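Hi there,

I know you've been waiting on this one. I reran it after we fixed the sequence typo, so this is the corrected version. Both the input and the resulting structure follow.
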Amino acid sequence: MRPPRLILLRGLHLLSFDISGYRWYTRLVALACYALLLMPGFLQVAYCYFFSSQVRRSIVYGDQPRNRLDLYLPTNTNGPKPVVVFVTGGAWIIGYKAWGSLLGLQLAERDIIVACVDYRNFPQGTISDMVKDVSQGISFVCNLIDRFGGDPNRIYLMGQSAGAHISACVLLEQAIKESRGESTTWSVSQIKAYFGLSGGYNLFNLVDHFHNRGLYRSIFLSIMEGEESFEQFSPEVRIKDPRNREAASFLPPIKLFHGTSDYSIPSDASINLVEALKGVGAEAEVILYEGKSHTDLFLQDPLRGGKDDLFDHVVSVIHAGDEEALAKDASAPPRKRLVLEILLRLARHISPF
């Protein structure tokens, strides 16, 4: 997994984009404390990431340095497995494929292959580079996952936070291209469902919110290639464009998950996208988790172990119609706790997200 030193250097480099970098310093400190509190769980996951035979790390899918993906493979190799393509978050700045390790390992225990796609971060790349990278990663999975025991007819796309935004942009762009008859290297029809976790889908509504939370307007505009690009990279806005209405019929079922106490990206972001999708006839649903923060759903809850409603919901969708898999899910042991409760509560309290 990426050394913390590199994350710190990335953060310090970003301070040069805005002279008022005080909030960046405080958030870097909070991030360091947050990571230390969760370190017992991170170390266990890191050990599996580096030493488990189930993990195939840094498979090349393109010609850019960050065009790599990790595969998490089930121990059960009987028959082709469903596949989740996962795009991790990181504020478009510190995203890294290994951040999906916990999800990948836990889904692999349920006989699901997970492909965690890496992509260029800012300032190495901007939003169009990120969208291009993720689309290439999805294309690799759609065309070659059968070589790793995956079922090319049962592929699911999932993104978290910034990764939810990027993957939603990719999915809609692909649907628009197909609706216009353009040639593509993969098809939206191969994606059986899209899961968006704590994502933001309307840049016009987020720019001021992020500025007030420390992701300054100047940096955000640089990441998103200026305000003139907001519409292109705002799925909520783009799907409402009459020129793109036909693309709605190409989209798979869309399920968005969000915590009501998410202050990094308010839950209205998911609610509004679902309303926009339904308005053009797409199949979409939002599931809200009362009192959950931006990191509860993706980190604290999985590290807590035991029953997890979001995890169970995702698995039930993927295994729908497979009676044998559903029976195994019903009898699966509770997930192991990786971090003490007191550390999880303290981490939640100081989380910079």
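Quick highlight: Residues 43-345 form a domain with the Rossmann fold fold (CATH 3.40.50.1820).

Best,
R. S.
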